[in-house]
Amino acid sequence: MINNLPNCINSDAVASDQISNAAPASTSSAKPNEQATLKDIEAQHISDLLDKYHGNRKKAADALGISERTIYRKLKNL
Questions:
Q1: What b/e readout covers 50-76, taking b as 16+ CB neighbours within 10 angstroms?
Q2: Cβ atoms 71, 46 nearer than 8 A
Q3: Is the separation of the CB atoms in 60 and 53 below 8 Å?
Q4: Which of 3, 18, 40, 50 could pair covalently with 36 via S-S, beta carbons 3.0-4.6 A apart?
Q5: Considering Cα of 50, then 52, then 53, then 58, what sign does the dihedral take?
Q6: pLDDT tens, N- to C-terminus, the chain (78 residues)
Q7: Please, what sign has the CA dihedral across residues 28, 32, 37, 2?
């Protein structure tokens, strides 16, 4: 079911070295020894994409497979 979502990677197509080299997501808002919430992870991922695309919200939205309007709403709620 997840493979049907936009921009999801089929696990068969991912090389094992890409998986082993992937760093775990860290969130600055999560306290030590606590599990990060989905909202924390989403906020960190959006922030990372905005850094990657030098603040370009359109490119970050495209990378997420969402509209630019949706990313504006998410940023407002975060």
A1: beeeeeebeebbbbbebeeeebeebee
A2: yes
A3: yes
A4: 40
A5: negative
A6: 445 545 554 444 444 444 444 445 554 554 555 788 999 999 999 999 999 999 999 999 999 999 999 999 999 988
A7: positive
